[in-house]
ABC transporter substrate-binding protein
Amino acid sequence: MLRLLRLPCSLLAVLGLTWLLAGCSPRYQPPLTLGTNTWIGYEPLYLARELGYYDGANLRLVELASTTQTLDALRIGTLDMAAVTLDEALLLAQEGQPISVLWVLNISAGADALIAKPAITALAQLRGKRIGVEQTATGAYMLDAALQQAGLQVQDITIVPLPLDEHFSAWQANAIDAVVTFDPARQKLLHTGGLELFTSQDIPGQIVDVLVARQSALDCCRPQIAQVIAGQQRALQYLRQTPDQAWQHMAPRQGVAAENVADALSGIELPDARMNRQLLTDPNTGLPATTRQLVQTMQQNHLLHSPPDTAALIRADFAVEAAP
C-alpha cells in the first residue's frame, strides 16, 4: 500500500515544484509592435534598428507594403503602435480607435506628389484621365488639393484605387495616366519620365507624419515607447553627422541608390526632440494648431464628419520628457 502511495506523492511533489518555479519565473511579455509602410520619413526607425539602438528592447518593427495594411493592423489590434499621417490619425480617432499622437516623425515638404505621364504637363490636362491613388486619407487629401488647384472635381477624372506597392507596376502597364504617390515609388516614377504636377510643397505643413500608440500600449509599455523615440532620435543624429553612411544603410530597404535617398530626404523635415517639444506643447503654432486647421480643411472637403477631441488626441508628455 505504501508503494502505491509513493508515485502519486512524487508526482505531486514534481507538480508542486513546477508550479513554484512557474510562479517565480518572469511573466512573458510579448514584444511591442510598431508598424510602418516604406515611406522615407520612417527610415530613421529602421536605421536605429540596424545600428543596434534597439538591441535589448522588447520591440518588433513590422514592415508593411502599404498605408492601408498599417491602418487595418492598427484597427484590429495586431499593432501596438504605428507611423501614420496626421489626417489618418484623425480618421482613426473619429472611428473611436483608442489612440494617441505621441511624436512628430516628419513633415512632408515635397516628397508627396501627384505625378503624371510625360504628355500631361499641366493639372488642367487631368480632365478625363485615370488617376491612381491609395484609398487613405492622405491620398484623398492630396488628390482633392490638386484638383482644387486645377479647377477640377472628382467627377472630372477616373479614380483608380491602388495600394502603394502597385503604383509602379500600374504605371508601367499604362493602367493609369497619373498617380498620387510618395517615396520610394515617387523616385522610380520620376526616373521613368514622370512629371510632378503637384507636391506637398504646395500645401506646406499639412502632410505631417506622426507616431501613434494604442491606449493598451500606453498602459503597459511606457519605457519601451520612450526607447522607440530615443532610438529614432539617435538615428537622426547619426544621419546628420554621417549622412553618406546613413544613406547607404537606408538605400536597400528603399530599393533605390544612396543618392536617391538623399533626394527623397530633401523633401521632408525631420524634427528633433527640441522641435517636437515645441510642436507638441505650443497650442498656437504647434501640432494642435496644425490639427485644427487640418480638421477644418478635411470637413470642408467631406473627409472628416465628426472631428475628435484634438486636445485628448495629442499627448505632449513623451516630448516633454525626451532628452534634447
The chain is about 50% helix and 20% strand. The first helix runs from residue 2 to 24. Residues 1-25 have pLDDT under 50 and may be disordered. The CA atoms of residues 165 and 180 lie 13 Å apart.
